[in-house]
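Suppose you are handed a protein chain with no further information: no name, no annotation, nothing but its sequence. What can you learn? This example shows the usual starting point.
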Amino acid sequence: MDIKVYLSKKKDIVDKALEKLVPPGKTFPPSVHEAMRYSLFGGGKRVRPILAIAAAESIGAKTTADLLPITGSLELIHTYSLIHDDLPAMDDDDFRRGRPTCHKVYGEAIAILAGDGLLNMAFEVLSDPRRLKAIPANRLIAIMKEIATASGVFGMVGGQVVDMESEGKDVDLPTLEYIHTHKTGALIRASVRVGALYAKAGTRQFAALTRYGEKVGLAFQIADDILDIIGTQEELGKDVGSDLKKGKKTYPSFYGLEESRARALEVASEAVQALKDFDRKADPLRELAKYIVNRVN
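A reasonable first move is to predict its three-dimensional structure. Written in structure tokens, the prediction is:
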């Protein structure tokens, strides 16, 4: 299969769903709604929603009207995290996806509130019975808990805290792996598990998809570490070398570039191996694992 065609098709589906979830920019108060849409529709690849869709498809589910609000909520949370990560008090980045970051355009206060708005809107969507009427309540609660845990202090927030507190310090490998598996990996893992929950995966299927999500999440962040060194500003859409400037430990700083590349490929291979008992319906997941480590942005 052609993974680029698959990604393009699914991204279009997700983008159309997001348009229906998020209020127009002119909705009062317009400043925060414009800021939310500026970041949400700023060129994201929609990897997390697409992973959820592909996981559901691997069990035999179809992309339906009930799945899309769930995948959209993942992108709302991911976008909120980027807005907040870019703030001066955190990673202090001026560019994201080739454009000025949200706080550079709308100011820090509105950027913070835009992130807050996107985070809360994700759970507004997930708790709206009009959008998710075909999903049993117990399964929907399990999906909401999965996303909330991955987004909070035992997931993305916790990883961001340790990441900031580790800047300029000589941290060990377990600390680096904690940062990677929580700041980035937790929401990626949750995206795969959410797709599995939606499709009513069996116990063994769910365990295999969980392992896949864990490995893909780690591979994604190792690839990001590498791109921060070898990528160009035009390809990445943001400043390169920012991790080194901030004194952050990364896989290349521990292992060097070549060994880090080898590790990324090894982890991606382990993700694919986790799907050994799945049929060809899981091919998008297999190709996504390869895409994640070979991408240029």
